[in-house]
Amino acid sequence: MGRSDVLIVGAGPTGLVLALWLTRQGANVRIIDRANEPGTTSRALAVQARTLELYRQLDLTDDVLEKGHKVPGLNLWVQGRKEVRVSLDTLAEGLTPYGPFIYPQDQHERLLTERLATMNIEVERSTELADFQDMGDGIIATLRRPDGQEERCEAAFLAGCDGARSIVRKILGIGFPGGTYQQVFYVADVDAAGPALDGELHIDLDAADFLAVFPLKGEGRARLIGTVRDERAEHPEHLQFEDVSDHAIRHMKVEVRKVNWFSTYRVHHRVTDHFRKARAFLLGDAAHIHSPAGGQGMNTGIGDAINLAWKLQAVLTGRAPATILDTYEAERRAFALKLVATTDRGFTLATAEGRAADFFRTRIVPLVVPTLFRLERARDFMFSAVSQIVIAYHDSTLSAGKAGDVRGGDRLPWVSTASGDNFDTFATIGWQVHVYGTAGAALRDWCTRNNITLNVFGWLASYEDAGLTVDAMYLLRPDTYVALAAEQQDPDSLTRYFSDHRLVL
Ligand SMILES: Cc1cc2nc3c(=O)[nH]c(=O)nc-3n(C[C@H](O)[C@H](O)[C@H](O)COP(=O)(O)OP(=O)(O)OC[C@H]3O[C@@H](n4cnc5c(N)ncnc54)[C@H](O)[C@@H]3O)c2cc1C
Question: Is 429 in the pocket of ligand 1 (CB under 6 A)?
Answer without folding.
Answer: no
